[in-house]
Design brief:
Keywords: Membrane, Transmembrane, Transmembrane helix. With 694 residues, the chain is mostly beta strands. The protein has a domain of 101 residues. It is 14% helix and 56% strand. A hairpin with a 6-residue loop joins strand 28 and strand 29. Helix 1 packs across helix 2. The radius of gyration is 44 Å and the shape is elongated.
């Protein structure tokens, strides 16, 4: 009996433990259920909300209202209809609905603070700071709710571990005005979604796997504020975003410090940002796609801006920035730039008012790092308001501190076409800027086509130039091959043609190409060939009563600078030939010297008069003076042969002597039938010329 009782007692105890645990568990569940029902019931809500509102309102002496505050069935805290006023009775914040998944255990143990997931909708807030004494208009709330502790203790303060997870913000309307920082701003956020992976406030490091901003309007104005020399340098953030998407976002930025206004309308932007570190100026992008957007930048030049002293140290040419981008694609985007209130005009190019419409760009391998840069452009097009349209662009560019190379350069601007390759070698990039003449150059232009009428867009006054209007009716096409140094460029080949009949070719050197005052050129060989049809477009044969040669070829040598030219030129035509050895200078004074020889030129064909025969002559002339009106000059002409109505005239001499713009022309000729004397006085006056014969 004793053993049976013990066994029975043991079995009762064994079954009693699960019953107790079950009752405890059931009790906890019932308690939580009753707590949730209490929290979610109108009666419980009224108690909770009334106590919280009364507590905050009594502490702050401001109006506070809450519609609902409860724990959802998913364990999240939800707050609906929150309203807070500031001390002046103005709205501080209104929140329609807020649901947060808070890591309670981490908060309780002090390991972290934040939210694993946040859903916040319908927020209106006004954050204002008028001075540094009173601070922000929400400071009263922090001061009232802060716990007062008069006991001084020494503790180790650990950095704040802020946890931010899945953030979903909808319909935010935030006004942030900070007079101390000079900021006036207004943020209307339609939707902001962020999947945060790292939020390190202490080191300002932020990483998100996804970041999305939609249907938003942002206005930001930066006003000038006094500089605080004692202010600590701000800690700049570093960002990483695996996928960033922006759609239908409008932003207006204005800085009265830099006199810059930017208006940005982003319809669709997608990019990847492996690293954007403002502290180290490191910016790494994966792809960057921008579609159907608009960017407008307006600037104003500051008056009396400080000038850089010549002896002051020059800043580094290479910026202290690391920038990389795998791919960029701009599609149907508009970009505008205006400075000093300039206005764009149709058919007139204005570098101070640029409006690029339908901008398309495809590029890759973009890098600026360690004194090296490169980019490959596969496609580029745009339409500029003035009428300059980029129809095609491609190139590969690489640059180091000692070399710049452009290959596969092809562009079509309106009907202008350029295919080229360029390589520059220099001691360093600073030397290229300061002493460019030491730069070695290798230029290859297998094709250029210039539509000269496009110059009217840049220089509208050329429309009034009859000769240029005629010249612009055909394009100028050709090729160029050159190498050497910018101090001495060897033009190995320049070939061009205007239409089908006019050809130009030359070989030579250009010295000091980067210094206009000392620019020189030397072309030991040049050739120009044209036809009567092309020349007659510039010279009206009918009005002049002449008949130009059917074919004309000009060849020879030419050298000099922008103020003085020396040439030996041979002119060969179907009517006769001429040789010119000449020198012309136009600096402080005019000066010239020339020897001309004409051989058997058919005047009957040129002047359409069969009574005239071929003429051969030589002319020697020289002169100098401040202007043509006070020129000192003399010339000597000898007509070695000439026929008029089959009457031969040989060795007819004509001389002229001019002093200070006044002089005489004399000639004496005598043969068996003629005895002629010529004496003419002349005044070199472009307004009222005078000549007398005796």
């Amino acid at each position: 009996m004793s053993n049976n009782k013990k066994e029975h007692t043991h079995k009762n105890r064994t079954y009693r433990i699960p019953k107790v645990i079950g009752k405890i568990t059931l009790g906890i569940i019932l308690f939580l259920l009753l707590l949730i029902l209490f929290v979610r019931s109108p009666w419980g809500q009224d108690i909770i909300v009334t106590n919280i509102v009364s507590y905050i309102s009594n502490k702050t002496n401001t109006k506070v209202a809450v519609d609902k505050l409860f724990v959802t069935f998913g364990g999240n805290i939800q707050l609906d209809g929150l309203y807070l006023e500031d001390t002046k009775g103005d709205t501080l914040i209104y929140s329609k609905s807020l649901e947060a998944n808070i890591p309670l255990w981490s908060v309780i143990t002090g390991k972290a603070i934040g939210v694993d997931a946040l859903y916040w909708e319908g927020v209106k807030a006004n954050i204002v700071r008028k001075d540094s004494i009173n601070g922000y208009n929400f400071n009263f709330l922090i001061d009232a709710l802060a716990t007062t502790d008069t006991t001084t203790t020494t503790t180790n303060t650990n950095p704040l571990n802020l946890v931010l997870g899945d953030l979903n913000l909808n319909n935010f309307d935030i006004v942030f005005n900070d007079a101390v920082a000079g900021i006036n701003s207004h943020f209307k956020i339609g939707k902001l979604h962020a999947d945060m992976e790292t939020t390190n406030v202490e080191h300002m490091v932020f990483k998100a796997s996804n970041l999305e901003l939609l249907h938003s309007n942002i206005k930001y104005t930066q006003n000038p504020v006094p500089e605080n020399p004692n202010a600590a340098a701000p800690l700049l953030p570093a960002f990483t975003v695996d996928n960033l998407s922006i759609k239908e976002v409008y932003a207006n930025y204005k800085s009265y410090i830099d006199n810059i206004t930017a208006t940005i309308d982003l319809q669709e932007l997608h990019t990847k940002i492996p690293n954007a570190n403002l502290a180290t100026n490191t910016f790494n992008f994966g792809v960057f796609n921008l579609k159907e957007s608009s960017v407008i930048i307006q600037t104003e030049t500051k008056e009396n801006a400080p000038q850089t002293l010549k002896n002051s140290p020059q800043p580094s040419v290479w910026p202290n920035v690391v920038f990389t981008m795998d791919d960029i694609a701009l599609q149907d985007t508009n970009f505008s730039y205006f400075t000093n209130g300039a206005i764009e005009k149709k058919d007139v190019f204005n570098p101070n008012a640029l409006v690029f419409n339908n901008l398309n760009l495809v590029a890759n391998n973009i890098k600026l790092k360690d004194k090296a840069a490169n980019i490959t452009i596969e496609k580029g097009t745009f339409k500029e308001t003035s009428g300059i349209n980029l129809n095609a662009l491609q190139l590969s560019l690489s640059a180091t501190d000692s070399n710049l190379k452009i290959t596969d350069f092809k562009t079509a601007l309106n009907t202008n076409v350029l295919h080229a390759g360029l390589e520059l070698s220099y001691p360093n990039l600073s030397a290229l800027m300061q002493t460019p003449q030491k730069t070695k150059v290798n230029l290859s232009v297998p094709l250029f086509k210039l539509a000269l009428q496009d110059l009217f867009l840049v220089q509208p006054q050329l429309k009034n130039n009859t000769y240029f209007k005629t010249l612009s009716k055909k394009s100028l096409e050709g090729r160029i091959i050159a190498n050497g140094f910018l101090s001495d460029i060897n033009i190995k080949d320049v070939t061009a043609h205007w239409g089908d009949a006019t050809q130009i070719s030359a070989k030579g050197n250009i010295l000091n190409a980067t210094q206009q005052d000392s620019l020189q050129f030397n072309f030991p060989k040049f050739l120009v060939s044209t036809t009567q049809n092309d020349i007659s477009k510039f010279i009206n044969e009918k009005h002049l009563g002449v008949n130009l040669p059917k074919n004309i070829e000009v060849s020879g040598t030419i050298n000099g600078n922008i103020n003085a030219v020396t040439t030996t030129t041979t002119i060969s035509t179907s009517q006769g030939n001429a040789t010119i050895n000449g020198y012309f200078k136009n600096e402080d004074t005019l000066a010239f010297k020339t020897d001309i020889a004409i051989e058997n030129y058919k005047l009957n064909q040129l002047l359409k008069n069969e009574q005239l025969g071929a003429v051969s002559l030589t002319l020697q002339a020289n002169g100098k003076g401040k202007t043509i009106n006070n020129l000192d000059a003399n010339f000597k002409t000898n007509i070695s042969s000439f026929k008029y109505n089959n009457y031969a005239i040989k060795d007819l001499a004509i001389t002229g002597d001019i002093k200070n713009g006044r002089g005489s022309i004399t000639s004496n000729y005598k043969d068996y039938n003629l005895n002629i004397g010529l004496h003419a006085k002349t005044i070199l006056d472009t307004v009222a010329p005078e000549a007398k014969l005796h």
